[in-house]
Amino acid sequence: MKYTIRNSTHLTASKNDVWQWITSIDGISKEMSPYLRMSSPRGVTSLATIDFTPGKRLFRSWICFLKILPIDYSDLTLQSLDEGLGFVEQSKMGSMRSWRHVRTISPDKEGCVLTDEVSFEPKFAGPILSKLIAAFFNHRHRRLSKYLAACK
Known about the structure:
single chain; 44% strand; globular
């Protein structure tokens, strides 16, 4: 069974600052902390600086619980990376039959809106994993609000 979750957060940070955040390994790590961490090859600091071919794997990223215990992997694959606008990631994962993450930045009069839409099909425990992934993306958006200031 396929699931889709969607989160949007209004941010006061500039569109450029949000772009830098969502493509930087440091920003991604801060969003996921303290529960998960995604590994990246040594020297990779931003997705925006990697040459990529749409649909071709960039690298294998290990997803670690509490930053140390590997629980899954993602063969990180971008379909598109549009500077200042967002990206589409469609990666092979150990736990998923399919995984598609669309992240967009839209201008807003007080800053911008960051939206995540994640569609996935777990290999097992679909109802449980869908609740965990929804809770995790809620957590990520709370962290975004903390670091990039949510509009009131």
